Each structure stands twice: as structure tokens, then as C-alpha cells.
Amino acid sequence: METETGRGREVAGSPLERIVSGGAAALSRVRSMGFGRWLRMEREALAQTVKVTAACALAWWLAAYVLKVDLPVLVPIGVLLTVSATAYSTLVRGGQQILAVVAGVGAATVLIWLIGANVVTLAVLVVAGLVLTRLLNLPAQNVQIPITALLVFALGSTYGFARLADVLLGAAIGIAANLLVLPPRYVDKAGKELCGLSAELADLAEDMSRGLRGDWDRDMAGDWLERARGLSTRLEDTEQAAEQAAESVRLSLRRRRYDRRLRQVAEAATALDHACHQLRGIARGLVDLIAGVRGLPGERGADLPEPLADELAALSRVFRDFGMLQVGRGRREDLEDLCAALDDGEHQQQRLAMAFHQTRNTELRSLQGALLEDCARIRHEFDPDSGPHTPAFPRQD
What we know:
By secondary structure, the chain is mainly α. 75% of the residues lie in helices and 0% in strands.
């Protein structure tokens, strides 16, 4: 059987296209779920938005009425530049902002003292600022060093020290807000994303099962393969969500209480990644079969034994139950149904192996063996007792 090679991410559209498609997707979710349910799912993001807004308002009030800063708006800007998705990354970003401003003020002050304020100084400041950004391993979009240097160049060194004070205050407020007030936790969010992706894999396996029971053709097989490829790409985002969940509790005083849940999320993401590639291999095999490559029978071989469709139906149940186990603490009923689906899949595999044993075509037997192997591997990935990802299953009390 021909190896299914990975494809890179599809090239993203223009920024305007991404904005339009993102807005359309958000409206579609609100319509399908209802405003109340959508609001409940987005409560974490909304709470963080309210928190950052309150932090900016507090920063401006402190700067304007308590500290009597000339440009109080710079302090909430410092808050916005500091606050990030997790408390840990907020702390890192705050340090980067302070380091960038210190470097910008220092570079501008020294250069102006050495060669004066002229176009050469301006050019050197920009070049030096961008180079220092890379040398200090700051994010590519962080241009605080050259911006600060240019502001000092234009407004004088007095402004530079005021700018440093503003950034320090803004960073302090931003860090305190994200560390002490509703620190963002992404553990449950990662579990929900895993559940959603697992449900899509279940839908794909179910559609393949239903298609194989009827008159499936090359177009249907191609559609299954394209969907599997798309889900493989989506898995990268899901793995990033698991990493973000681990980062979000890194500075938590009660981090140990999340350890088992974090391990479950990470193991579940790995299990889905492996199983998705195996389901993609099954789709690839069906495409090769119906296309008649390398001596395969083509459309004459489209009438596959019924146990293959039954096997895929069982795998669809496995995917769906596994996804439901990643939400909250998981239900015992879902685990029991997953085990029953695994047993059913093993029974169907035995029937399928007996049907395939009668095949005489060498190429076709090779493909059938690959189909059997991929089905067996998927079941092994989700075996809660002896599989490779037992931590992916919640503890049943």
C-alpha cells in the first residue's frame, strides 16, 4: 500500500478573508448553539476581557489622579502590552517589555550623547533596536526597543525615564491582574477541544461505514481522505491547546491538583493524533482501491465485506465515547460503552480477517492487511486497560 505522506498546512487567506471567515464562524456557532449556551462556553474568555479592562481603568486612574503622570494613557498601554494568555507568559512578557524599554532608553541616551541628534543617530537607533530585539530573543512583533529609542530621540532623555516608569507601573499592574485575579486556566478548554475533534473523527468513521454499505465511488473516497487530512492539521492546534493548559497552571500555588488532569489532556491529544493518522491510512487505502492503482481491482473491488463497515461503525463509537471522557470527570457509562465498542470491533476484525483470507490477488491482500492493521491500531490506542495511553482516561471512583 502506498504511503500517505503528510501535507503542510494549507496557505491561509488574506487578513481580511480570515477576519470575515472568523466572524462568520462565530455567528454560525451562536445561531446553532443559542446565545445562552454560547455565552456559557465563552465565560472564561469574557471574564478575562472584563479583568483586563478593569486593570487598564485602574492603571489610568492611578497614573492620572494618584501619581499625576503627564501622559497617563501610557500606563494602561503597558498593561495591554504585558497581559498575555496565561499568567506565566504574562510574567515573561512583562519582563520583556521592561528589558526592551531599558535597552531603548540606554541606547538612545548614549548615542545622542556621542554623536548628537541627527538623521545618522535616528538610522543607527532603528538598526540597533531591531538587532537587539533579535539578540535578546524578544518576539518578532515586539518593537519596543526602536520605538522607545525614537521617542527619546524626539522628546529627550527626560521622556525616556518617564517612559520607563510608565512601563514598570503598567507591567506591574498587568502581572498582578493575571496572577492574582482569576488566573486563566485552559485545562477544561483543552478537554473540550479534544472532545470536539474526537467527535469529528467519529463522524468521519461513521460516514465511511455508511458509505461502504452502499455504492461508494472515487469521489466519496477522496472526500473521506481530504477530511482526514484536514483533521490531521487541526490536531496541531489541539496539541497547542494542551501545551497552553500546562503553561496556564505553571505558577499556580495549587499546581499539583492539576497534574493528573494535565497528563490526561496530553495523553489524549497524543492518542487522537495517532488514531487520526491511522484512520487517514484507511481512507488512503480506500482511495487506492477504488482508483485501481498498482494492479488493484478498482471499482470491481468496491464491494467490500460487510464486517469492514461494521468495524468502522464500532470505531466511530470508540472515538465519540473517548471524546466525551475528556469533558469534566468523564462518565462511567461512556467508558463502558467504549469498552463494548472495542469488543465489537475486535469481533468484526476476526470476521473481516476470515473474509479477506479468501483473496488471491497479491496487491489486494496487501491492502487488506494494511486496513486490518490500521483498525487494530486504532483500537489499541484507546484500550483503557492495556493500551499505550491509559492516563488519557479519567479515574473512575
